[in-house]
């Protein structure tokens, strides 16, 4: 899902970036290489300004859910400045069924949003076809999912918090030790449990796709966590001062 405002400068830059990120080593598509479908919701509903990124996320989510990729309206001729980066890309002009993907792989959409005030964002939307969980985050006995410890590539975010850098490092060390002793720990449930715990001033987050990788990252981060310091809160009693803002992409300030 491209930002795709139709500008003569922005669109070629975005197309070049997409080509270089997803197909960095191929000037021409290799035989059997899949095309990457690229479109923008702006051709369907126009530019919604401050909610343009959210509109792209909603389109991506619906496309993933229904397995149908919406058409890009009013596309007649490719911008000549985009053509050098169009080898692997295709703009769908009709509603398109989701391309075939390997068994067990999720549908996935990357969403670009480049705000003219300098706020740039990228989101990745992915399908979820696993077991349904109850509100408390655990599977029912009949569902009994296989613990996700390695090999599925989905990964997760594991958040720790404490009242000091030393305490945060100690929590990381404790969790790393536990994972080494219990390599079959269900990472989904671990991530859920950590998110449910109270949040303290010192926080750290780790991503991993296996217990071994998570333990490795926890151990590697302990030295940094010990020396971390909390940024003090600015007292409300301070007098107002002049702030200079440099937006980067525009002069809205």
From TrEMBL:
One GO process term, biological-process aspect: fatty acid biosynthetic process
GO molecular function, one term: fatty acid synthase activity
Presence of keyword Hydrolase: no
Gene3D superfamilies: 3.30.70.3290, 3.40.47.10, Malonyl-Coenzyme A Acyl Carrier Protein, domain 2
Keyword Magnesium carried by entry: no
Annotated keywords: Phosphopantetheine, Phosphoprotein, Transferase
InterPro entries: Ac_transferase_dom_sf, Ketoacyl_synth_C, PKS_assoc, PKS_Beta-ketoAc_synthase_dom, PKS_NRPS_Biosynth_Enz, Thiolase-like
Ranges where the Ketosynthase family 3 (KS3) domain occurs: 1-127
Protein name per the record: Putative polyketide synthase
Phylogenetic lineage: Eukaryota, Fungi, Dikarya, Ascomycota, Pezizomycotina
